[in-house]
Amino acid sequence: MATKPSTTTTTLISNLTFEKKNTHLLHIPSKASSDGNNNANKKTYRIEKRPIPRAPIASPYAGSHVPKTVYISSKTPFMSAVKRVQKLLRLAERRAMAPLMGGKGKRRQTNHHAGRTGGDILEKCQQRLREEKVLVKATGRAIEKAVSVGRWFEEGKGGGGEEFEVVVRTGSVCVVDDIVEEDASTHDEENEEEGEGGGSIDPDITMSMTTTTTANSSTSTQQDKEPEKEGKEGKEESKNQRRRRRKRERIREQRLKAFVDEDGETPESRTRWVNMVEIAINMK
Hints:
Translation Initiation Factor IF3, about 280 residues
């Protein structure tokens, strides 16, 4: 769908609408899980994102029948993307206006347009120029930068006097994520090795520990004399915490059951949809 750019880039992005397709996305267990046995190896899972598949970039000197695409990522410099689009538009203008300019292929162009007036040839060239578009594509976090590039051409900030037509379309791209399985025992061993350490105990530290224990014993007697209302509130809070913990465990078990197939094996990959924006820019 096409939307008209507004005064600011942020408002334009808020006006864009994307179809929600990740309704049944496969959730990965956040904590280590076992296969049911007490001595079973606990396993953890992590996601490795594959690069988004895309068509190869065409040569900027290819004909008008070949679409010219500029892919933008979150690390692409803004002016670098603008200059790439400008270069493609200049080459498109040169191809469209070739019948009106001299040089190579002049005889072939004159034979093709034989019997036509200069106004007809100019109108035909302008039509070809409007038909050849440069596509700016971006996904995820790079959508804001792609929209700002389109707005840059919409407002004509280049100062060259050209007028550009900008059309924004939204969509989604299907990507694949690899599910990597790891043993939680290896991580526990690494943490234990990092936590091990030797050394002598400072007597000043032991003295401070004894003083803190005596202070804690004196404060515990004061805490026992608190009113009963605070004790009831503490019990109610503990019940709420217990209820929330059981709810989290129930949701975790449901996700784990959905994560494992009928044979008890974990999937090797999952698919999800990523928001995508396509901005078509052409000269008027």
